[in-house]
Amino acid sequence: MRAASILLAAALLAGVPAWGKQPPVPPVAATSAVLSADHLLPLMQEWRGGTGTLSLAATSTLALDPAAPADWTGEADLLAKDLAKVTGRTWQVVRRAAREGEVALRPTSAPLAAEGYRLSVDMKVTVEASAAAGLYYGGRTLLQWLLTAPDPAKALLPRGVGNDHPRYGRRVVMLDLGRRYFQMDSIKALIARMGFYKLNTLHLHFTDWPAFRLDSPRYPGLAPAGASYSREDVKQIEAWAAQHHITIVPEIDIPAHAVALTDYKPELGFKCPSMRSSHWLREAAPTIGDKAWTVDITRPENAEWLKGLLGEFIPWFSGPYFHVGGDEYQYDADKERCPELMEATKRMGLKYPGDVFIDWINQSNQVVKAHGKRTMIWSWWGFKDDKTSTLPDRDIIVEVWNQEMEAQIKKDGFDIILTPEDTMYVTPWEDINRNSNYGLFDLEKVYERYPHDTSPQVLGYALAIWADRAERHTDHYFLSRAEEPMLVMAERLWTGPARGSVWDLMRRADRIDTARRGLAER
């Protein structure tokens, strides 16, 4: 299997660097001179094959319907550029009805999901959609077909009609930038790969104990020089993501995971030993010394400082969501040994010290909502011995990693994203002898047997690429480890239950890999 180069085709198609030098790949023999819907990844929801094939006209025209919205012009131009890379011809975009042998792009009044599309091949190719995202995904399907053709230059397509749409609205990849700084080119390459395989959300974990990665003149010295992202960097990431219909979800993880903050401003940290120290930090950095893991949110001046921090960075991002973390603050045994936390619990009229953290989450929610966005958090409250008598605001989306809490969180009425740590984490830890499934993505299990939840509250699933205890490795090391899991997640979240084995899926991916050679040699 050549997974290290499977996704390179998407990067070449998008015009961005790959995330590492790839070895030569021997040719893959075409299984048939005639393509079929079985060559795609993810597979279409429905394809009714016709008789014969259509060879697109040598004039290579994309006919954008005159009734198409204005924002479809950019979509048509992007598809024309990508088709040129695949077929070796120049493609022209015109505003008129399509003729025989051409590609028609047109809006439809038929009931289609926002990301859905209808693709038909007869005397011409027609891609119909109700929104720009659907047009984009229909274009990705057309590109994959041509990429897997025995001779892409002939632009030969199977006749038939297909209807396609995603099973889940949120198809997420999370990248841990807090523990490891990833180069801008690597982030762009990841976005291009995600779009090509119809994943639509990139969750960027910008902060963790090693570093705060967002660099603002308002907080000089908070972000490490040369290993952080400026506002201009964020604009570039968002602009690139918008081309590929990727929603960026930024995360500032507070009040725990906050060593970078408490180093920058020591008065933020708890003074009591039980809330300063953390076994998570000791495990990650045994020699780091006395560092404060959690911000002391019982002090009003600290809470206001954090709100100011959020107020600075939330406007950097144009998307509809902002993630405030909220996980891995200390358990109750530690909370109850902290005099200032217990005093604050009493002063605030709360039953348990865990309620203080719920109160903080809800304060953060008000800050995020004031900027017109919806708050996201990690599931944490009520985990293990953490007792609470209150709940986060119900309009918050909860990213659930601990499966034992999933049923209760759903019962409490939250919308959720599922990312179970023992199933959907890709974490290349140094300790290969650990007795744990943490970070070990089982391709066969997730594709063939994992019971993905289709409850209305489940907005989608996330593949989490964490950098725990492997921070020294390269971008290529991390992202190549995630390539095959991304393919599995892409199909399960778009198409639904497995159609065949995971090895059938990888063989389809190998067909797409043949395009890498052709594009790289041009």
Mean pLDDT over the residues: 90
Number of helices: 18
The SS-based structural class is alpha/beta
| Major sheet characteristics | 8 strands, parallel, barrel
Beta-strand share of residues = 15-25%
The backbone outline, from C-alpha atoms, is elongated
N- to C-terminal distance: 24 Å
Say how many strands there are.
18
- What's the arrangement of strands in the largest beta sheet? 8-9-12-13-14-15-16-18
Radius of gyration, rounded? 24 Å
Low-confidence stretches: 1-6, 19-34, 517-522
Helix content: 25-40%
Characterization of the model:
The chain is an alpha/beta fold. Helix content is 35%, strand content 18%. The chain is built from 18 helices and 18 strands. The strands form three sheets. It has an eight-stranded parallel beta barrel. It has a seven-stranded mixed beta sheet with strand order 1-7-5-6-4-2-3, with helices on one face. α2 (8-14) packs across α5 (184-196) and α3 runs parallel beside α4. The radius of gyration is 24 Å and the shape is elongated. Mean pLDDT is 90; it is low at 1-6, 19-34 and 517-522.
